[in-house]
Amino acid sequence: MSTEVLFLVNGDERSAMGYRARAFAGRLPDHWRSRIEYRSRGKLLSTGAFLRAIAFSRPSIVYVLDMASSGVIAGAAARSLRRSVLVIDTGDAISALAESLGRGPIGLLLTRALEAFSLRMADQIVVRGSFHRQWLTTRGVGAEVIPDGVDMQLFRPIEADSIRVLRRELGLEHTLAVGLVGSSVWSEKLQMPYGWELVEALALLRDKPVQGVIIGDGTGIPHLRARCRELHIEDRVTFPGRVPYEMLPSYLNALDV
Fold this sequence. Notes:
Structural class: alpha/beta
CATH class of the largest domain: Alpha Beta
Oligomer: single chain
Shape: globular
Number of strands: 9
CATH topology of the largest domain: Rossmann fold
Largest sheet: 6 strands, parallel
Number of helices: 10
CATH architecture of the largest domain: 3-Layer(aba) Sandwich
Strand order of the largest sheet: 2-1-3-4-5-6
Radius of gyration: 21 Å
Mean pLDDT: 91
């Protein structure tokens, strides 16, 4: 008898969670069956789509990736109504994250409620770092650590003309290219997003042949662009935006740091 696993991804197919879900599904034993459902637009539509997937597949295990309301609510329903095992995989202590981002009192209250509900309903919590596990342990919650990983056949050093062409396209010729990858989210509390330190450092190195590259999107990008204009270093920072997963190794190889 096969075991049915339904992955509920709080993100689209191109999201980091989408790749994580497919990596997990591809490593299940042959006698296990898996299905992956991705978030659609809007929380209500996503919750409805997740619930329909549960009704259709009748999974033994529901694996929710990221602690967002749509997946958690649907997973909790499957656990309560169908006795499915509920696993919630999260990379953040979402209440602490919300507080650091300066979320308002109502939003913070709702986030704390979602986190408490998720931790109470889950049969198993999975986190991506050991410190997060320790943080949960101090609160009486057990968790397993499964770090994020990469395809080592894809993410490797590349020596090719295509990398030199990409460096030229990004304006990185004859410079030391310093870059970062990730979502840049503006924090009202800190008044800065991810990537702020790179912009500030480049302003101090304006007489050096150093070029910054910020790969990714998010609410912080407009603030970073504005800060570059304030510091008169618009030509020193390149913003490629969100890069497809398959192209990311080339961009990483184009960087020096």
